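Deliverable D4.2, example record:
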Amino acid sequence: MPVSYLRRAKSSDLEQLVRFLEANGLTTAGVESCYANFVIATDEKGTLLGVAGLEIYGQSAFNYFKNLGFDLVDRKDIDEAVMASLEFTECRSTALAMRKTI
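Output generated by the structure prediction step:
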């Protein structure tokens, strides 16, 4: 299985993102205005492996994830490996931290 890298979609990904969704029979309605809600998975060469998008209607992200069983945690209680990750270090210090125990 190829190594994959995850990152937030950028405006420069829009054309490839739309082609991927269309090729897989998915709607592209509204993608242009919310591409930043997508995560892109690529291999080490940058080849697109997959995408994931989040659409939230009528509720906050906190409520959405709370309904999925996530609990709010203090940022100081987050594992060191997570805190050192690129995704976490680029996250706003005001962003809520949530965790789900499985």
